[in-house]
Amino acid sequence: MSFDVAAVRDQFPVLKRSFDGKPLIYLDNAATTQKPQAVIDAITDYYTNCNSNVHRGAHKLADEATRLYEGARDTIATFLNANSRNEIIFTAGTTEGVNIVANGMAQILKAGDEVIVTELEHHANLIPWQQACERSGATLKIAPINELGEVDQEAFTSLLNSNTKMVSFAHISNALGTVNPVVEMIAKIREIAPNALVTVDGAQGVAHGDVDVQALGCDFYAFSGHKVFAPTGVGALWGRESLLAEWPVWQTGGEMIKTVTYSHAEWNELPYRLEAGTPNIAGVIGLGAALTWLSQFDAKAMRAHEQSLIDAATERAEQFDGMTLLGRARNKISVLSFVLEGGHPADVGFLLDRQGVAIRTGHHCAEPLMNKLGVPGTARASFSIYNNMSDVDALFDALAKARMMLL
Ligand code: PMP
Question: What's the rounded Cα separation, in Å, for the pair 237 and 230?
Answer without folding.
Answer: 15
